[in-house]
Design a protein that fits this description.
With 294 residues, the protein is of the alpha+beta class. Helices cover 53% and strands 12% of the residues. It has a 5-stranded mixed β-sheet, with helices on both faces. A two-stranded antiparallel ribbon has the order 1-6. The two termini are 26 Å apart.
Amino acid sequence: MSLTSELPRPFMAWSPETADIGKRAGAWRRRYFLGKFGEDAALFLLRRRLGARMDGRAHALLAAIHRRVLRALDRLPHVPAAAPVRRLGVARSETFVAPHDPVWATLYEIEASLIRKALGERWVELHHIGSTAVPGLTAKPIIDLALGLPPETFAQELGEAVRLLAKIGYRYLGDRRGLGGHYMEKGAFPMRTHALQLHPAGGRELARLLRFRDQLRADSALAGRYDAIKRALAPVSGGDRRVYVWSKAHWVNDLLLERAGPQAWGDWLLAQDPPSLYRMHVRHRARSSSVRAP
């Protein structure tokens, strides 16, 4: 059995409408998700054969992958906004997005109060980030937060913060570096209701997150473009969150690059050393097996 045949299928009941969505999802995965495995292989070869040396062919390959996904996002069909729904939490098998709900800001304040109380004086800054922090923007109904710890003692404070946050329901999932910092989440498995990133206060990655949020808040046209991409991408990713996140990240990270040029995106990607879809797939299967175990 091939790796791709073992990937999670769309989590939806059959109907003429969902059957059409399923066909489009399958087409998207074949054209772009399978291309991601090609990207993983290319990155592996680049690291093994080139090491730290990046020649013109390597940059051209990564630039071509990036352009391919951006063009695909531009060609996605328009998906009208859905009816409002009051919901908090998304299952791991879902790519569900909902129209903006003003209650998300209130839910952030409630959670922020719990975090401040749990940590006492150990925190420096706490922010509402992600799409639920941008009024009017479609989002996964998960409250995203970013916590800044004292930068001069970050390594020492991190372990204690993780221990204290576990007492209010957060699970530590490791260091995602430039793709999410030290990452924690909350919610009864398989649902996630809150996602928390821990960074050194005032650090570069935290500033990057806040810059993106503030750009969307200040520019309604930019927020509208992002909103359209999220609404169109959710159904064609076929219930596979990894496809949704990876595809959307090309647009987001292209916007946030600190310098321009054909090599910029590839340099950023290699610097982050993101987990491959293969590694995420293995991790997903390991977690699923542990949940099913007696």
